[in-house]
Amino acid sequence: MVVPRDSAVGEQSPDGGKKAAKGAKGVAAVKGESHTALVRRARRINRELAEIYPYAHPELDFENPFQLVVATVLSAQTTDLRVNQTTPALFAKYPTPEDLAGADPEQVEEILRPTGFFRAKTKSVIGLSRALVEDFGGEVPGRLEDLVKLPGVGRKTAFVVLGNAFGRPGITVDTHFQRLVRRWKWTEATEPDKIEAAVGALFPKSDWTMLSHHVIFHGRRICHARKPACGACPIAPLCPAYGEGETDPEKAKKLLKYEKGGYPGQRLNPPQSYLDAGGKPAPPLGSA
After folding, report:
1. Partner of 192 at 20 to 30 A CA spacing, among 169, 177, 181, 245?
2. pTM, rounded to two decimals
3. How far apart are CA 192 and CA 177, in angstroms?
4. Residue 287: what pLDDT?
5. pLDDT at residue 217 above 80?
6. Residues carrying an active site annotation
């Protein structure tokens, strides 16, 4: 059972009560919250998530920047699991940008078919490979302005690559990130670039990459889109949206996914820290 902490970070209300705590549930309330209080609450949530997910990591399998940029492009409108199950065959046959740039599109399409939208994705990964060969000497560039010039690569993909292949801070605004930061009232923005700017202003730049991992991990495991497991959420006292999902602890526990629910993760080759935390590798494509 999740027992809310005594109080959450908040501003003093005119009647002397804490705005961040509402009754015994300790649910964060943000009406009239000052910017300073918002920053404190947001950073506390991130600190809590860092304790919950000390093993947070990108959930795409990759061994180098080229594999990561291709895998991230392929992850559009499908799961990381399906990408991870598909890319071993792709990279075995086309290990370098030069190889993929000269590939027969029909053969690539056949490999990528399980990821969905395989014709468009084939066009993108062959196109970005050609661009890497022709414009960047076969190397993935380490600058945002260069990455977004590659076919199929937008700011989200670029920040995934910069943060995880080059160690350069960036915020990854995917669907999970958008959903959670709005539930937490970090921003009311709906456009990814505005969300990126609003959330980035709440944290030191050095926190951005791991913040993205923490939030996305939480969105995939506990704070789901349709049935958030509120009753099993360790940051419930800090969440203004507490109660949108199942609040009964036992029922909420059944909604947990991946290692939190005792199920395999999305990577076939996850980091050792994930395995040490009880996570299980995902099965390869076609396995029972």
Report:
1. 245
2. 0.88
3. 10
4. 76
5. yes
6. 156, 174
